[in-house]
Amino acid sequence: MKIGNTVIDPPILLAPMAGVSNRAFRAISRSQGASLCTTEMVNANALAHRSAKSYWLMELDPGETPVGIQIAGSDPELMAQAAVEAEAHGADLVDINMGCPVKKVVNNGDGSALLNDADRAVSVVEAVVQAVKIPVTVKMRAGWDHDSITAPDLAPLFEKVGAQAIALHARTRSDQYARPANWDFIRQVRERVSIPLIGNGDVETPEDALRMLETTGADAVMIGRASFGDPWIFRRVTHYLDKGEHLPPPSAEERAQMARWHLDRMVEIKGESVAIPEMRKQLAWYLKGTPGSAEFRKRTQKLTTKAEASALISEWLEHARHEELTWN
Ligand SMILES: Cc1cc2nc3c(=O)[nH]c(=O)nc-3n(C[C@H](O)[C@H](O)[C@H](O)COP(=O)(O)O)c2cc1C
Fold first, then answer.
1. Which residues form the active site (predicted)?
2. What phi, psi does 136 have (nearest 5°)?
3. Residue 71 CA: distances (Å) to CA of 80, 120, 219, 228, 287
4. Domain 252-321, CATH number (from 1.10.1200, 3.40.50, 1.10.287, 3.30.70)
5. Atom of ligand 1 nearest to the CA of 169
6. What atom in ligand 1 is closest to the CA of residue 15?
7. 277 is in an annotated binding site
8. Which fold has domain 2-243?
9. Annotated active-site positions, please?
10. Which residue among 13, 73, 201, 277 sits deepest, i.e. has the most Cβ atoms within 10 Å of its Cβ?
11. Residues within a 6 A CB radius of ligand 1
12. C-alpha 15 – ligand 1 centre gap (Å)
């Protein structure tokens, strides 16, 4: 798949995820085969107010490519400014958020609220396209609720004003995460656009990825939650799509090593006092799959220093070596 001049190969992408897809996690996902990674969403309004956090979210690792910076907002002018910043930060693509279901976001008319306001949504895409030279993509849900499935009508309008790819999370805003994704929404959008289409929602296994590509006509698959504590999912999916065979799951050693790398990088990027609380849930995801690992996961919630976290990983590894790993 190509978006503008950017080659996306293999067609397996890491989803933008606030609180997760930071520089550390993007590097890990890329190392396991995710071909395009996207930042956490950056609020265009906060950026216009020179919020240090927003600038920080746009920082990329040296040489990090291809990478998208995702911006969120509903004011075309502010979104255009945010896109210019994203381009200046070195993004290969700028992605517009039209999926975020969070109340605080939609109450401002941002995120998935744009799915209800076609004129504004198109103005936002058009303004962003006009403001930058890099390709513009839109990540959207299928609609606000099941009585207003607007993505199949909106996507061709976005294509017409210059969007170069659409990522569809196959749920509505009202579904939040409570209902399973309905991949038929992806197929419906496929029928209406000729730009690259990225399918997203509930891909948990290599078989899911293949089934999504085959049944929807999507050009690529975007994976979010299934990568938590399991960035190897990108490698397993790629291998399965290439060879039709399964790679074995990672060993306990590999998991401990990855958890430690993630921990170190997060501490480097964010400092210990911010990184450790954020790493608690991440570590809990890595340290699973052994009988008795629930106890280790519980202990991750009390971690306060890097030394404690590192010691817990070592202890888990010792324990895991004596147990048979399962992947669940
Ligand atoms: C913790 C979390 C944070 C998320 N943050 C964003 C975000 O900043 N921007 C966005 O477009 N989607 C965001 N999403 C949605 C994901 O990108 C993705 O569409 C969704 O999780 C469905 O894919 P999955 O079933 O593979 O997880 C987030 C999801 C999660 C779980």
1. 100 (proton donor)
2. -110, 130
3. 10, 15, 23, 23, 33
4. 1.10.1200
5. 19
6. 17
7. no
8. TIM Barrel (3.20.20)
9. 100
10. 73
11. 15-20, 40-41, 70, 97, 99-100, 139, 169, 200-203, 223-226
12. 6
Q: What stretch(es) of the chain map to CATH 1.10.1200?
A: 252-321
Answer yes or no: is 17 a known binding residue.
Answer: yes
For 230-244, write each residue's pLDDT tens digit: 999 999 999 999 999
Tokens describing residue 45:
């309004």
- Pocket test residue of 169, 176, 185, 203 for ligand 1, highest count of atoms within 8 A of CB: 169
* Contact present, 187 and 215 (Cβ < 8 Å): yes
User: Which ranges of the chain have pLDDT less than 50?
Assistant: 328
Backbone angles phi, psi at 258, to 5 degrees: -65, -40
Q: How far is CA 237 from the centre of its chain?
A: 16
Residues in the chain: 328
Token pair recorded at residue 104: 């605080």
Number of H helices, E strands in the chain: 14, 11
User: Which residues of the chain form CATH 3.20.20.70?
Assistant: 2-243
pLDDT digits (tens, 9 = 90+) for 209-229: 999 999 999 999 999 999 999
